[in-house]
Amino acid sequence: MNKNIILCGVGGQGTVLASRLISSAAMSRRIPVLSAETIGMAQRGGSVFSHLRMGEGLYSPMIARGEADLILGFEPGEAVRLLPFLKPDGQMIVSSRPVMPVTAALSETGYRAEEMIAFLQSCVSRLTVVDAEQALREVGSPKVLNLILLGAAVHSGALGLEAGDLKDAVRRLIPEKFHELNFRALDYCS
Amino acid sequence: MHAEFLMGNEAIALGALAAGVNLVCGYPGTPSTEVLETVAKRRGADIYVEWSVNEKVAMELAGGAAYAGARALVTMKQMGLNVASDPLMCLEYIGVKGGLVVLVADDPGPISSQTEQDTRTFAAFSKVPLLDPSSAEEAYVMIQEAFELSEKYRTPVFLRPTTRVSHGYASILVKDPEEYTVHRAEGFVKDSSRWVIFPRLSFGNHRKIEERNDQLRSVFSESVLNRIEPEECLLSGLRKGIATGGFSYTYVMEARAKQGALRVLKVSTPFPFPEELAVRFLSGLDEVLCVEELDPYIERELIYVCGKYGLQTKILGKLTGHMPRSGENSRDSVHSAVAAFMNLPLESAPELTPPPLPVRPPVLCAGCPHRASFYAVKQAMKGRKTVFCGDIGCYTLGNAMPLDMVDTCLCMGAGLGIAQSLNHLEKDRSCFAFVGDSTFFASALPGVVNAVYNQAEFTLIVLDNSTTAMTGHQPHPGTGRTMMGQVVEKVSIENVLKGIGVTCVETVDPLNHALAVETVRKTADLPGVKAIIFRSPCVALFRSEKRMTVNPDACIGCKKCIREIGCPALSFRDGKAVTDPAQCNGCSLCAQLCPAGAISGGDPHE
Q1: Crossing angle of helices B275-282/B199-222, nearest 10°?
Q2: What pLDDT does A108 receive?
Q3: Alpha-carbon distance B202 to B197, whole Å?
Q4: By the number of CB atoms within 10 A of the CB, which of A79, B22, B172, B443 ranks highest?
Q5: CATH fit for domain A3-187, picks 3.40.190.10, 3.30.70.2970, 3.40.920.10, 3.40.50.300
Q6: What's the whole-model pTM score?
Q7: B544 pLDDT exceeds 90?
Q8: What DSSP character marks residue B549?
């Protein structure tokens, strides 16, 4: 079955690695994968995305509006930004923790993540909000948000892959000393 | 053969290795950089690879290798081709013996470039044949084809991926190293009638080049690289068609899957244009929509073919306002354009009205020494009549608020010329040119020589973070490392400047704020050309374990730290400044400017 997945966030949050893990897991099941992502200047604190498409008969790695089965939002505002890509009955998993841009810190108003989450709740029926502050504290590292969100996705069945497939991908792509931490993060939302 | 999940640029590199490439060189530039990096990672022991000092030098190396019968690949982005155009234009007239592939990655959007120039148009201008892949898989095949073509027709050949091809990933089948072609260079054979360019040689070779390109028009019309889908459509009664190439082909095929029967011409060799194939495609069609990025290249070629062969087909595209003149295509923009062309209704998605979204322009990293350098110059020159000429690199981001320290930015090395010129016109203006260390070696040296000899007056600021940061940390002559893995003597920026005749050359750590400001103050007012080298390593390469912390009891909530330097690790919560430990690198610049002494931790810079 074909799947269109978008991962979005802010440069430095680990969207690329998460996308790579899904691709690797899918390939181990012999599912063809196409993907595309932001590289270059925007990585310095800008909005970043990965498009990932699995299945047969695909030409373009890019996903059209209203075509994503799943959006993994690493940041509330970025999830709202890419919401038009979600299918009407598509699923979204989003971290509640905002990343403040310098522009917001400079202005008096700032930007409020709660408004973004409330907006998503008003228009996405299949929405999972992950309390990232708590999750990162309980898993014990500020750096594994990507694996926590991936875990939430795989355990919900949204990826069409098994948690074991992703763990194998972690073993292939990540140094061994981080395996335990990453497995804990993957299973946090099981 | 085996399957690998590869970025387009990685696929190109593996294709070059499979074709038996002997020498690979280039200059980093998004979106081309990963080609050479992948070659360096996966090459056999007898393959030579280097990051050259700039694209012109790289092109000359590659040309030399091809003279000797070696297979050579030279890589750059589209802006780099401008730098390399002098040797390339001449190389086309001289010709090659070994295969020479010029990889130029174009950047529709533009996403990380100054221009939306189109290398297909450059190919027609330079008379160099060009292959235009639409996917990583095609790029893998095409680079091998490009080496064959280059050797067969004794000409350099362009391979032109665009950003989405270069940076897209796909699972593709690639050769095992045992299956690679082994290509051995014969060595340079002296023949001054062949390798020394003179007007008479150029005259003769020009004629041969035009004849060859006429021949290639026919060869490419029969090539499997170009095709009409479906071929049998004369029978199907279709009256409309789409002509496309490059990454836009994937958008067209996705739209076609949804919108049904359309005849598609895929042009993979825009130059020389497959003219006879185009005639076959056009015959029987009333209207053709051209879907392409950057120049209306295919569109112009088809209009030309219609004129030449007296065809009545209407050609629509950028020139007729049916497609946007600038920027990238997307799945959605092509879908809409094709629907309009087919007179089909477009389903509109429900309108959403989200709360205002945060703006996220790219910014200098937390702890980036460039921030400290810009801030020091800004403080030192406060209230003075100045101009700050910027350049190409991470430090272009010094233009962002609140630093606002880039008044001009044109192309690599241009800040030096602009700064000199402005002082010739306005003697009372204190002129500065900022240049990074890699850019210094790549394109600032003639500007320095020019300034010293022609009695210019300006301050050159070299932002030396010991790497080529923006493109992902490639070595350059100031780093002491090569892509062959050697540790070598660095070329000293100080010695180069002194050798040229710059008498005042100061080197200072920009993160020692007081000393940095003092150095700028005393240097800027000296006569003639003077230089300050701000030396501190890129934080993305040398991560400090130290973190700054704000003592909330001491913080007076004045926001000076936030207002002055715009560090992404600093924000304001409940009336106090706070630092984000996930981003902070402990550079201590904020602590040095805090009037309340409320920030501590980090590295001492004294």
Answers
A1: 40
A2: 64
A3: 7
A4: A79
A5: 3.40.920.10
A6: 0.95
A7: no
A8: E
